[in-house]
Amino acid sequence: MVITLSSSPPIPSFCGLKTLFSSNPRSLSKPRTRLNFLKPKQDKGLNLQRNHNYNTNFGRESRSYRCNLSGFDLGGLEGPQSVIEAAGVLTAIIVVHESGHFLAAYLQGIHVSKFAVGFGPILAKFNANNVEYSLRAFPLGGFVGFPDNDPDSDIPVDDVNLLKNRPIFDRILVVSAGVIANIVFAFIIIFVQIVSVGLPVQEAFPGVLVPDVRPFSAASRDGLLPGDVILSVNGFELSKTGPKTVTEVVDVIKTSPRKYVLLGIHRGGAEPGGQDFAIKVTPDESYDGTGKIGVQLSPNVSIRKVKPDNIVQAFNFTGKEFWGLTSNVLDSLKQTFLNFSQSAEKVSGPVAIIAVGAEVARSNIDGLYQFAAILNINLAVINLLPLPALDGGTLALILIEAARGGKKLPLEVEQQIMSSGITLVLFLGVYLIIRDTLNLDFFKEML
């Protein structure tokens, strides 16, 4: 999202391109609330699917929602309804962000000339109260435009209601209002989820669940079935579920190519007909010499929905969940900067975000609540970064002005800083759209 001053460099706030929804097995924390965001086949948590023909999937059990979209199966655009739902969520979040900027200006009497969703060529538009509302071609965010330096505007350049002529505090309020709107919207979404659906609470059980078994794999050949629970490995019992439990099974399999592994199995769930027995599975040898058996693994948990007893408890649940999601977003951003070379490929554009959202909508409609909440929080955090083309970059320029005693930087300098940032973001956005589109299954099949 971007705030623009007509015929001058934009004061930006861009739609965050770093998605933060994933099921990363190594980042499981408090085993309190979990949602099923990704189907098992799509989790690349330990990056084992590609190399070892099996992976671990935490899906709804993972408390961290960092989405490793570089390895993500973007075949998730099947089914128009789920795609429309995901696109609707992303569009609503963009509109909320821009509405924050717009309302902060409008309520202060500041002149506004444009309100746009998307960038580039105009697809549709209408005018009302001297404001042009438009839908544009590239869904990379949006912008609110101000006529501050518009040569075609009839407003005098010294008009006190032009944004550039307002006091520093007024401008800070306008620029930061988009972030504030997203934070408030995220809190409302979580509150509605808790009141209407309930708070998902996880109960952990011993062992590791096998959600899926690949046909013709070592696991299938030796008798392992989807739904089985691995209770022990080579005689060692597994504790209650957790990242270490899944990793223990993974490590044993990887270090045992062509050597049988004795798995203690429970089959049949909690029903009376359930049975415990042992299976000898002989992992195949992968190209890198490690073992693989062709299964997906996840913690053995059950999820129940807890509804609040009263409005006070509802706000209490909402506050805890909101802070938990915010902490995960901040942690993911921190890890991105600390390990940029490994995490840069996880930056994703609107196509990948919609693919994830569509998968969420198909697998668990309740998950759309947290999908929307996390997108809002992600957008708010990303836009606060003091970088050109982000709200934080504009705030940084205003704070520099304040530090200089109200003396602004030369207009040419501001234009150069912001224009370069916007250009970089647009190029990045187009690149991500092309890359993520080519990662869709039907494009892969065509290629």
From TrEMBL:
It is a multi-pass membrane protein. Its cofactor is Zn(2+). SUPFAM superfamilies: PDZ domain-like. One of its GO terms (biological process) is proteolysis. The chain crosses the membrane at residues 172-195, 417-434. The keyword Coiled coil does not apply. CDD domains: S2P-M50_PDZ_RseP-like (cd06163). Keywords: Hydrolase, Membrane, Metalloprotease, Protease, Transmembrane, Transmembrane helix, Zinc. Residues 197-268 form the PDZ domain. It is found in: Membrane. GO terms for molecular function: metalloendopeptidase activity. The keyword Translocase does not apply. PANTHER family: MEMBRANE METALLOPROTEASE ARASP2, CHLOROPLASTIC-RELATED (PTHR42837:SF2), REGULATOR OF SIGMA-E PROTEASE RSEP (PTHR42837). Belongs to the peptidase M50A family. This is PDZ domain-containing protein.
